[in-house]
Specification:
It comes from Actinacidiphila bryophytorum. This protein is of the alpha+beta class and 726 residues long. The chain contains 13 helices and 41 strands. The two termini are 45 Å apart.
Length: 726
Amino acid sequence: MQNATARTATLRAAGTALVLELTEPVPRVLHWGADPGELSDADAAALALTADGAVLNNAIDQPRRLTVWPTEADGWSGTPAHEGHLAGGAAAPGPVLTGSAQRTFDAGGGEVELTLADAAAALDITVTYRLEPSGVLGVSAQLARRSDAGPEPYDLARVSTLLPLPARASEVLDFTGKWSRERQPQRRPLGHGSYVREVRRGKPGLDSPYLLAAGVPGFGFRDGEVWGVHVAWSGDQRYLVEQLPEGAGVHAAVLGGGELLRAGEIRLAPGETYRTPVCHFGWSADGLDGLADRFHALLRARPGHPSTPRPVVLNSWEAVYFDHDLDRLRRLADRAAEVGVERFVLDDGWFTGRRSDNAGLGDWYVDPQMWPEGLGPLADHVRALGMDFGLWFEPEMVNPDSRLAREHPDWILGPARGRGPTSRHQYVLDVSHPGAWAYLLERLDTLVAEYGIAYIKWDHNRELHEAVHGPGDRPAGHAQVEAFYRLLDALRERHPALEIESCASGGGRIDLGVLARTDRVWTSDCNDPVERQTIQRWTGQLLPPELIGAHVGAAESHTTGRVTADTFRMATSLFCHPGIEQDLTRCDAGELARITAWTALYRELRPLLHSGRQVRADLPGEAVLLHGVVAADSSAALYCWARLATSPEGQSGRVRLPGLAPGADYRVRVRTDLGLPSLHQTSGPAWFTAALEDWVPLPGTVLSLAGLPMPTLNPAHALLLEVRTA
């Protein structure tokens, strides 16, 4: 609805709201956060009346306002909404409102579109606020150079999407990481100035900020008000939270982000347009789990979200590496089918000249020496066993030792003076080059059709350094991402049933931009379950479990050398989209029996695991974790009680099971399908001993409010606890 009296535009959905005042010259944000309910004319007028603060000493001579497009024209001294220049001039943006439109969605939420004009730069700016039924707010902008503008291009330096934060949002959480240790949380108090995270890797990276959140001090998984932003872009990014001494109008700070543009990357000639990536903002009154609920609902509502049960996967990498012997792979497929695998993926090593990672990348033809009959014999064998066939690619990369690099050196990104060092023995292919793009589409399209490929593991292993190309070494990072998106779109258009996994040295390209075009992410190259418990715990802050690839590796981890029990590896993988990454032909009968029981358990529980709400308990320290999935109506749940390390405490005491209804009656049992974890105790607790044998009736008040005394496990062990209504 649009209130004509107060000239406000309000979007409401799922307990959250955005209220804009359509003032001139530039509208402003009156409120973002908890839903105040339907606003009357008097309510809107009161909100507007209280949106002006004091006129400060030694400041502009009117109350400061945080507009929807803040610039110095508003007296704003923080990060501006956009920066740029026109041949060295028009460097002080001064947009004014020229129009607005609003529509509502039947399922809740809606969209407000504001149009602004910057006369000096001949720019028309369209800002779109889209509140989804999940309560996630998507904000994007379009900057168009008018066709009747002068001949000089407008050099766009930066566009930032900003929303206000209240003073109580004084603690900041974001993420860092490295290869095999992605999405590690880091917290800090919010002070004066700018906290900025810039990504200059050509992809979000293994140290991706991922989601920048600000909340009340001590906000946790289950409690505390929190605001967050995610930049849905698969290239260079910029996140920020900024607090100035004078505040942001009557607000305390701003939260936002956008694409990080390189100098000279976006030069808008008359008639040209730049579109920002969508920044997704979320608010929760119920801690980080409440914020995760919103993002999971957003993703699950996508038209292209996977609608079929997520199959158990076997990926060949840690089973055979580059040793692509047909008979060996057939035996591996046979064993995979026996234990319940539903999708078999052939990893790196199948294409021309590929005996190691030193050569062949870019030559996307089946190696005739290793595969004299092509991939057909293996693909047909896999499908005859009742499994899908998948294949690994790394389309955006090229080895210098390849036919492609020798024949088309002009397709490789790098400055005219000469390229810098290789990384992982490879360079980056300029996917925006028409010839390179057409070659990749033809190769992918042909192979998918020829071999009936159902699934692609799409890798991206090196970072983009000196990503320039063409006349004058023009920056190419933005064009690279757009070309990558077009390639995915074209391939999916030709093969609508094809599923694609986003993999980038593990979890280096996980964002909602790539997930608009893919069906799963490879969370990390690390299958060590001790590391994976934390990696998956925080990956789930943005993504629901069915999109998070998690495989059971061999007893000795390929990446850490740590040896763990198969029960712990399987329990860890169960809570995502699970698979296997080991040579099953080397497993003994007992291990194969446990893997078979694990795949059966997953098939039994995946309707719950891939539709329920993720919950995580707030516990002191990091030695033990409790996480789970609870049905939307709280009628069923599966929890994982995991110990990662020893702790000073001998026992946990009562631990509350989050997400259950206090007023409901439940029954509880320990799932022993995979065997029992190793216990660091003599016996008990009493409920645990009973639950090993049968269902134990317990009321919701005990489970969710008082809590259960949990058994003490040895490190690197986990317990599965199932809860159902009585």
